[in-house]
Amino acid sequence: MVHKFLPNSEDSITKLMLDKLGISCVDELYSDVPKEVILKRELNIPSALSEIELEKLLSEKLGRNKSYPAFLNFLGGGCWVHHIPSVVDEVLSRGEFYTAYTPYQPEISQGMLQSMFEYQSQICALTGMEVANSSMYDWGTALGEAGRMAFRVTHRKRIVVSRNVSPERLGILRTYCIPAGMEVEVIDFDSQSGTTDLRSLDSKIDDNVAAVYFENPNFLGIIEESASNIVETAHKHGSLAIVGVDPSTLGLLRPPGAFGADIVVGDGQPLGVYPNLGGPLIGIFATKTDPLLLRQMPGRLIGIANEKGDPSRRGYTMVLQTREQHIRREAATSNICTNEALFALAVSIFLAIMGPRGMKELGDHMLFKSHYAQKRLKEEGFVAPCFSGSFFGELTLNTKIESETLTKKLIQHGILGGLPLGRFYHELKQVSIFSFNETHSLEDIERLITSLRIAAR
Fold it and tell me: How far, in Å, CA of 442 to CA of 209, rounded?
C-alpha cells in the first residue's frame, strides 16, 4: 500500500531497495533478533482514522484534563503556576525569535546571542553569582551536571545531599553521578524544623567529599536559615557548595552568592514560562569566576566585545561552548547539555519587566499568601505547618487522612493540590504541601479551606 506521508512505500521502490541490500524481504533486516521475542501477530491497534475523526477523538481526550485556570491550582514542588505578563508572549512570538533555533554559527545570530547574554546577566544579578551559562534543560539536569562538575574540579567521588531536597531531582543526580563512579550520600533533615541536620552533615562530611548540595527554600518549603553554616562546613573540607533555588523567592531571600555558594542551580520556569503539563522547563546554572570552575562549567557562555577600531560597536559571540558537537569533541564537559533559547528569552523579558521592585513584590505575595493560609488553617484546627522552620510560599499540611486520598477528594471540588508527600517520605503519608503565590486571591484560599474542611472528614 502506498502511503502519501511515507517515502519509498511503493512496492517497486521497496523491491529495488531490498535487491540492493541482497535480501528478499524486510523481515530479514531483523534476523539477528531472537525469534522468541518477535511478535507473532498483528499489532493490537485500531484502524486508521480520518482527520475529522482524529480531531474529535483527541479533543474528547484532552477535555478530560483537569488544569488551571478551570481548576484552582495549589500544586508546586518543582513546577508552578505563576502570572505571565502578556508582553512576554507578545515578544516571544515574534518570528525572529520563535523560529530561531540555538545558534550554531553564532556570528550571524546577533539577536539571539544578545538575548542570551541579557539572560545570563540577569541570572547573575538574581543569584548573586558572577557567571551564568545560557541555560540548560531543567533544574534536575542542571543539578546532575553540577555534581559531575564537582567531581572534575575536586577529583573526589562523594556528594552529600540533604534528604529535604526534591526526591525527583535527587534521582536525577544519582542517574548522572553513579555511572561516573560517584557516590551520592543522603543525610537526614531535622524532623522538628524540617531544615538540614547540621550534626548529621558534620558526621558525614570529610576531605573526600566533592560537594554538598542543599536547596533554599527546600522541598518542604522551609527556609534553610543555617545556609551560611552549611556552606562554611563544605568549604572547611575543601568541598564545593551547590545550592538549589526557586528564583521567584530571590526578590526577598538572600541570594546564594551572598552566603558563599560555589554553584547555583534552579529552574527559571516560574519566571515567565508556562507549566506546560510538567515541561519543558529551563535550567539555571551559575558559578563563580574562578577559572577552574569556569572551564568546567557545562553549557554555553555568551560574551560581548567592542570593535577595536570603533569601541562604540559591540558584537556577541560564544566564548565557551563545551558540547561534544563543538570543538571539544571527547573533551566536552557534557554530551547532552544545551540551552532553552526561547525560554531563556521568556525569562529575560519577565525579569526586565519585573525589575528588583517587581521581584520583591512577587516574593511579598508568596510570603503573605502562604502565611495567611497557615493562619486560617490553624484557626480551623488543621496542623499547618508540620515543621517549626520558617516557610516561604509552600506550606505543609497534615489533615490526618492519607494525602493521596485528600488530593483525589479536592479534585472533586475543582482544586488541584496539594502534592502528597507520602509519595516521597514514608513518615509523611498524611502530609501534603500546598503552594501559594500572586495568582491566588484571599477568596481562593478561603475556598480551599472550605473544601479541606469537607474533604478531611
Answer: 46
Q: Report the CATH architecture of 72-83+356-455.
A: Alpha-Beta Complex (3.90)
For residues 77 and 419, the answer to whether their CB atoms sit within 8 Å is yes
**Residue keyed to cell 546532575:** 144
* Per-residue pLDDT reduced to its tens digit, 388-403: 999 999 999 998 899 9
Q: Does domain 86-350 have CATH number 3.40.640.10?
A: yes
Domain boundaries, the chain: 72-83+356-455, 86-350
Handedness of CA 55, 58, 63, 67 (dihedral sign): negative
Phi, psi of 149 (to 5 degrees): -65, -40
Q: What share of the chain is helix, strand, coil (3-state, %, to 5)?
A: 45, 15, 40
Compute the radius of gyration of the chain from its Cα atoms: 25
User: In this prediction, what percent of the chain has a pLDDT beyond 70?
Assistant: 94
453 exposure class (CB count in 10 Å sphere: 0-12, 13-18, 19+): middle
Whether 287 and 129 have beta carbons less than 8 Å apart is answered as: yes
On the question of pLDDT at 275 being above 80, the answer is: yes
The set of cell numbers assigned to 128 is 548573586
